[in-house]
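quick q for whoever's on today - can somebody do inverse folding on this one?? i tried earlier but teh output was garbage lol. tokens:
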């Protein structure tokens, strides 16, 4: 069975959920590493969420995540809700509707950061920049799926080299007072650069900051391809890093870069919103 992680939901929201769940919709984001499920209420927002590892059975993981999210929302695991799927594995499971990754991330990010005009979605294997118009519609987008240097897996590689945890790397970066640079476009070559920096020796805090600045620079290059606009919403697993978000603020020379709560669930939230839109017809 896939390992599970459930997100915390405000208990007041659970208590306010009506017995009649007809207003609720669900979204499932089936990624290459994790499946995220979200239950969304039109008035109260996110009322249930769950995350499980994808494993070798995406459909099973999707069903498990959805059941956990329903339970967290105070519903029966088998409660029937309009449900839409998104993500790389959306074809592996059967739900009411399918939503593209770009459309789901855009809708979910706009829900979390109401006036955002640019969405930076940085996950385990890929990164994307999505430009939105004033109404929140997708105007343009650019993807990077060719190199882990633009995604969260780059951080995992660096964590192994430094023999540290993700949390340690993040906190080190925030304490940096110096300057180090990682120029490699490929994660493998970047590992060699990190080893060289360690041998100089370079303080681990400065190396950690350089790691996040490297990812931020690649993410910003995607943003510039579609046109930088503020406010910026940063979502996806990498957005859980304070060091990464701080590096993006330095890269864009702006404080209008926001990583909202539930950054991992933007795609699932966007899919749930699409399920609502289709239900309302």
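ok took a stab at it. sequence:
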């Amino acid at each position: 069975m896939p390992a599970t992680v459930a997100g915390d939901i405000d208990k007041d929201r659970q208590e306010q959920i009506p017995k009649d769940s007809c207003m609720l919709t669900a979204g499932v984001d089936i990624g290459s590493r994790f499946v995220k499920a979200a239950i969304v209420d039109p008035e109260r927002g996110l009322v249930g969420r769950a995350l499980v590892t994808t494993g070798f059975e995406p459909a099973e993981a999707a069903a498990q995540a959805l059941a956990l999210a329903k339970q967290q929302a105070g519903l029966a695991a088998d409660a029937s809700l309009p449900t839409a799927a998104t993500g790389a594995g959306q074809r592996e499971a059967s739900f009411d509707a399918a939503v593209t990754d770009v459309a789901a991330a855009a809708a979910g990010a706009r829900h979390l950061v109401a006036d955002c005009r640019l969405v930076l979605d940085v996950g385990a294997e890929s990164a994307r920049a999505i430009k939105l118009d004033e109404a929140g519609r997708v105007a343009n987008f650019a993807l990077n799926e060719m190199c882990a240097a633009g995604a969260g897996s780059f951080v995992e590689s660096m964590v192994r080299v430094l023999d540290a945890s993700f949390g340690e790397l993040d906190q080190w970066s925030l304490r940096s007072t110096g300057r180090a640079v990682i120029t490699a476009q490929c994660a493998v070559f970047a590992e060699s650069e990190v080893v060289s920096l360690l041998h100089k020796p370079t303080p681990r805090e400065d190396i950690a900051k350089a790691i996040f600045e490297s990812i931020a620079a690649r993410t910003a290059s995607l943003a510039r391809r579609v046109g930088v606009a503020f406010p910026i919403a940063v979502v996806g697993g990498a957005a859980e890093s304070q060091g990464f978000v701080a590096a993006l603020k330095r890269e864009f020379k702006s404080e209008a870069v926001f990583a909202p709560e539930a950054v991992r669930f933007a795609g699932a939230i966007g899919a749930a919103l699409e399920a609502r839109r289709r239900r309302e017809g």
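fwiw The chain has two domains: 4-98, 114-259. also The CA atoms of residues 21 and 115 lie 28 Å apart. so keep that in mind when u check it
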